[in-house]
């Protein structure tokens, strides 16, 4: 049977060409010079996530043992504001989001060897109507998306460097995750692996 993706899910293969991907990597390198990757941990248990993270934008998504999932205006380790959202990402949002306001946060996930992301719903935002727009760079990954309730079947798509995914409508409230990264297949990310950039609105427009 054909896989079924929820309404509002969109995949734009190779939205960014290799030259634009290289520019995005330069922007990430500059960003993490100002706001270094840090090791996020799960609420309560303190278990480390397998990705390391940073953010662009006025708000950054962070998590740690004591205070859990939340948005912060400053980096949890340096206390400095997050770097500005790069123009290429702003332009992408304006092109594909169909939303009147710019995103407030852009999470930078770095998947190194063996990293993945369990099924979850992005739900720390005060408005779940604005879409989530995400960019894949570097190694390919298997992205899974199911329904609005936990459990049940998922559909899967292999995301390659330069691909963009939009979660709007129902898909915005659906469980999704990254079940594996094909580590070492791309040479784009200087220290290897996959970079994912996920833009979100936090406050209602
Ligand atoms: O890495 C991806 O493609 C998905 C990331 C994600 O779902 C998230 O950061 O909430
Ligand atoms: Fe997510």
Search tags:
Jelly Rolls, single chain, alpha+beta, 4-stranded antiparallel sheet, binds 2-oxoglutaric acid, 6-stranded antiparallel sheet, 205 residues, binds fe (ii) ion, globular
Give structural notes.
This protein is α+β, with helices and mostly antiparallel strands. The chain has one domain: Jelly Rolls. Helix content is 13%, strand content 29%. It contains 2 helices and 12 strands; from the N terminus they run βαβββαββββββββ. It has helices at 18-34, 87-96; strands at residues 9-12, 52-56, 60-62, 70-72, 105-111, 117-120, 132-138, 141-145, 155-159, 164-167, 176-181, 194-200. The strands form 3 sheets. It has a 6-stranded antiparallel beta sheet, with helices on one face. Strands 6-11-8-9 form a 4-stranded antiparallel beta sheet, with no helix packed on it. Strand 3 (60-62) and strand 4 form a beta hairpin. The termini are far apart. The mean pLDDT is 98. Residues 107, 109, 117, 122, 134, 143, 176, 178, 196, 198 line the site of 2-oxoglutaric acid.
Write the layout of secondary structure elements.
Elements: E1 9-12, H1 18-34, E2 52-56, E3 60-62, E4 70-72, H2 87-96, E5 105-111, E6 117-120, E7 132-138, E8 141-145, E9 155-159, E10 164-167, E11 176-181, E12 194-200
Antiparallel strand pairs: 1-10, 2-5, 3-4, 5-12, 6-11, 7-10, 7-12, 8-9, 8-11
The structure holds 2-oxoglutaric acid and fe (ii) ion.
GO molecular function: dioxygenase activity
Domain Fe2OG dioxygenase: 102-203
Keywords: Dioxygenase, Iron, Metal-binding, Oxidoreductase
